[in-house]
From TrEMBL:
<dbReference type="GO" id="GO:0004645">
    <property type="term" value="F:1,4-alpha-oligoglucan phosphorylase activity"/>
</dbReference>
<dbReference type="GO" id="GO:0004850">
    <property type="term" value="F:uridine phosphorylase activity"/>
</dbReference>
<dbReference type="GO" id="GO:0006412">
    <property type="term" value="P:translation"/>
</dbReference>
<dbReference type="InterPro" id="IPR036566">
    <property type="entry name" value="PYNP-like_C_sf"/>
</dbReference>
<dbReference type="GO" id="GO:0046872">
    <property type="term" value="F:metal ion binding"/>
</dbReference>
<dbReference type="InterPro" id="IPR000312">
    <property type="entry name" value="Glycosyl_Trfase_fam3"/>
</dbReference>
<dbReference type="GO" id="GO:0005840">
    <property type="term" value="C:ribosome"/>
</dbReference>
<dbReference type="Pfam" id="PF07831">
    <property type="entry name" value="PYNP_C"/>
</dbReference>
<dbReference type="InterPro" id="IPR036320">
    <property type="entry name" value="Glycosyl_Trfase_fam3_N_dom_sf"/>
</dbReference>
<dbReference type="GO" id="GO:0003735">
    <property type="term" value="F:structural constituent of ribosome"/>
</dbReference>
<dbReference type="InterPro" id="IPR035902">
    <property type="entry name" value="Nuc_phospho_transferase"/>
</dbReference>
<keyword id="KW-0687">Ribonucleoprotein</keyword>
<dbReference type="GO" id="GO:0006206">
    <property type="term" value="P:pyrimidine nucleobase metabolic process"/>
</dbReference>
<dbReference type="InterPro" id="IPR017872">
    <property type="entry name" value="Pyrmidine_PPase_CS"/>
</dbReference>
<dbReference type="InterPro" id="IPR018090">
    <property type="entry name" value="Pyrmidine_PPas_bac/euk"/>
</dbReference>
<dbReference type="InterPro" id="IPR000053">
    <property type="entry name" value="Thymidine/pyrmidine_PPase"/>
</dbReference>
<dbReference type="GO" id="GO:1990904">
    <property type="term" value="C:ribonucleoprotein complex"/>
</dbReference>
Amino acid sequence: MRMYDIIMKKRNGGELSTEEINFFVEGYTKGEIPDYQVSALMMAVYFQKMTEQETLALTMAMADSGDTLDLSEIQGIKVDKHSTGGVGDKTSLALAPMAAACGIPVAKMSGRGLGHTGGTIDKLESFPGFTTALTRRQFVENVNRIGVAIMGQTADLAPADKKLYALRDVTATVDNMSLIASSIMSKKLAAGADAIVLDVKTGSGAFMKKEQDARALAQEMVKIGKNARRRTIAVISDMDQPLGYAVGNALEVKEAIETLQGKGPADFVELCLTLGSRMLMAGGKADTVQEAKERLRKVIADGSALKKLAEFVEAQGGNADAVYNMGLLPAARIVRPIPAPVSGYINHITCDEVGICSLILGGGRETKESAIDLSVGLVLCKKSGDYVEAGEPLAMLHANDETRAEEAANRYLKACSIADTPRERTDFIRGILE
């Protein structure tokens, strides 16, 4: 088998066999096939697209290219939740303990943030002492004992995907639905869950800006999951403004805790109930969406979800007292309002710009090596459709540096547009694919 023939076949619109895909993925991972040949193949795929069978074969080849997580020692049906990323997305912080309190074992691998989107691990490290550096044995034991564990992604999980993504990033071949879907799903399949619930974001703060693209990606990933014999559900949710009100690591942790206390923002609660209900149904803990949502509301009301968060934090070395005393979490030195320049209705908040404001304050990474300030960020006071008087705060800015605070405040003002009439409200949940 020759790479030259595989490139030509795809260039001419042919369908690659599973054997041909396995050949190039294995050869590229081992360094036996050069970048320039795989670049040519990726460009051919970009223009000629991939069939459903090709996409599945590529996903499985990447998933099998390194370590796979064996979760067979964990009791029950393991359900993983994955978000395509956004601003203020602290969903795992609240949803994991909610699902665990309902009897769903949550064995999750998460990453750190890069750029304007935050990472679950960074947010969890707001709890003093918390670590995701678990051995496989600790990971499994924690899930069996308390129902939830989150560990960092290993370097050897789907290494072919890392190499291919880095190459696609510099050869203008990222934006292909099959390649995006196989990249996400290869890591999910390698992580060993029995069922997968996907939160596919759409809007100005999402990777998929247009709803039709988000829907197409969701459909592609659900098909891959089905063909890989994993129950897969995709929820398409709005990311045209930040999720909830808090943006920034410790600030988002506080909002997640408040949600488990029954005081969460409406959009965030709706998302947790929508995703959580599908997790419970996939895990055999509820027969209907209504029954599942009632169970999730109950574990918030009786305090068992909050208790589960404290158990989880303590099991991974963190100070569980911070769950009940949020004053123990990192706090910024400067807290000041960003006043509205005029009166009117919030017409639009450019979501990714809000993420960049947090980045400017020090709450995100420009590079993987950058240090982050866990205490900084913004808490929105007004969201799209709300009325604001001139001088009233649009948001509260949390900072440790005056110069950065001023820059972030000016940028936030530019990200908000204010109109004389209210904008039409749209559904927060845009669709569910099963």
